[in-house]
Amino acid sequence: MTVATAVRGAPVASTGRLGSLALGALGVVYGDIGTSPLYTFKTALEWGGDASPEAALGMLSLIVWTLLITTSLKYVAVVMRVDNDGEGGILALMSLLGIRRRQPIAVVAVGLFGAALLYGDGAITPAISVLSALEGLQLPFPQVGPYVLPGTIVILVGLFALQRQGTASIGRLFGPVMVVWFVTIGLLGAGGVLGHPGVLAALDPRYGVGYLTGHGFAGILVLGAVFLCATGAEALYADMGHFGARPIRLAWYGLVLPTLLLCYAGQAALISSGSLPAGANPFFVLCPAPLRLPLVALATLATVIASQAIISGAFSMTRQAIQLGLLPRLHIVQTSAEGYGQIYIAPVNWLLMIVTLSLALGFGSADNLAAAFGIAVSLTMLLTSVLVFVALHERWGWGLAPSLAVAGGFALVDLSFVAANLTKLLEGGWAPLAMSALLFFVMSTWRKGRRALLEQIERDTIPIGDFVARLPGKPRIAGTAVYMTGRLDVVPVPLLHNLKHNKVLHARLVLLHVATEHVPRVAPGDRLTMQALGAQCYAVVARYGFMEQPDIPAVLAGCAADGLGFDMADTSFFLGQETVMPAQPSRLNRAEHAVFGVLKGSAAMATDFFQIPLNRVIELGAQIAI
Fold it and tell me: Which of 25, 101, 245, 455 is least surrounded by CB atoms within 10 angstroms?
């Protein structure tokens, strides 16, 4: 018996393969949401200021229905069906809607800001997760309190320092460890429920509604805290391409959701029994005293896995952003020959570490960080709902009413969480918003400046047909010249500069255009197209998905099948190196010009990004005013 994964075009997977993928999903996809019981109920108690049995039942009802509506229904059942050839996440969704085509600026802005918010999530998750786990040591050993923050810093520094080595060697342990984690928290919760089965009444949503309507402003605060139980849902969607929708759904419905519900119910039962010490974390109190130290160790390991997953997700999202023209080229290191998603991007890693450590030191505890955590993720979810509406209406062809009913219903739930988390704006919620605003400015400036630069470059050239018509009879020298170009209907500027200054043309000219498609990966058979333009001039198009890394030598080797063979020792690559200057008037303001200049100067060399042999490259400079 076989079942197919949800990734379009993927081969049919056996049930054994499906189980293996589901196990992998447990380690990579569910680390974030799986460690949320460490801080969700504790935060709700502190923000609500009420630990009565009635309050515990109301909070549990809100948590249960948040997991069912936001995670199970919205993301696992619906949003994961709005995929880009199997890939998920807000950038893949934005690409599905055609970021390079003429889309309303609002759609582009929504996608950019959502991506910026996800980077904020990536910085906060490691800090709050590891802090929450180590704070559990204070229950059996109160004297370790002053050492929790330093211990967190040590773990986080070690985690980021090891990223360069990759996770291929230990990644296979992530799934089994998270299975142990989920089974453990499920058993702890089941023990609490058996002692007070009355908490199962919280399945009735009226308890949650009653809490919200009966507690005034405190109810709104608690709603913001309750949202923490679903913070990993957006990351779940973003990681869909690594495993496929079916394994992720199998892991969610088969293990993650039941054990999470049991764990939260057990914490509510503990509170209802009146045996929770003031200020204590019900998660750790739920555990028998002799087992609390091993539980802290397991929780710390689980939070490290969750942090690793979110860091790897930031690397993957950065590669998508580069391929979509939202960030400059960065040097990407493939850390595993087996897993395409196993990559390392040094600037992202160290910037993320600096921000994460700053958040941990600045806020000092998981309770303080909770205020910053919820607002970033709830806003991302709201923006995803907006893009899902556009996808349902424009890409799937749904009518306005059904699209609005589905996406609008989710957006209303998201809005309630955004409003609740905004109450903590001055207590830390400003931090992710400030980070996201900065990242939004950086990405939008790069996109705007890059377009202006390309338009100016292409305006100063001539049609390729006119150029080829003049080639017969012109003197040529031996060898092949490959010119990288963004368009094939005009002559690349480096070619014009070479002809103008060096008065030379090679015997064979190749105009090579690398196109990033609106799909994650391009099938090998669709990778390459070639056209003879005449006079030994050729146009070659290499197509890559936004999750792929271009490899120019491999492209040229593939041309041999079409009769265009290359001898790399007789081939030169000509690249343009532009210096940007402000035009009068300029399309960029002073701040945008400064940022664009810094970004362009920090971009990785084209030789590294396209994997071109360094000793075969000739760069031709030009000053461009934009």
Answer: 101
Rounded-to-integer distance, Cα 410 and Cα 414, Å: 6
Whether the upstream peptide bond of residue 585 has omega within 30° of 0, thus cis, is yes
Cis amide bond preceding 613, omega within 30:
no
**What is this structure's pTM?**
0.81
How many residues in the chain?
626
Alpha carbon distance 531, 465 (integer Å): 13
What are the per-10-residue average pLDDT scores of the chain (626 residues)? Answer: 30 63 79 90 92 94 96 93 82 72 66 86 88 89 90 94 76 86 96 93 95 92 94 84 85 95 96 87 93 93 88 86 86 70 86 94 88 87 90 86 93 95 89 90 91 80 88 86 88 86 88 83 88 91 84 86 81 85 84 89 81 83 78
Q: How far apart are CA 350 and CA 337, in angstroms?
A: 23
As a whole number of angstroms, the distance between CA 511 and CA 166 comes to: 36
Domains observed in the chain: 16-422 (1.20.1740.10), 455-625 (no CATH)
Kindly list the distances between the CA atom of residue 379 and the CA atoms of 198, 231, 279, in Å, as whole numbers in the listed order. Answer: 35, 11, 29
Nearest partner of 310 among 118, 156, 169, judged by Cα: 118
Among all chains, which residue has been given the structure tokens 């196990």?
23
What is the token pair recorded at 475? 């003197």
Q: Residue 597, Cα to own-chain centre: how many angstroms? A: 26
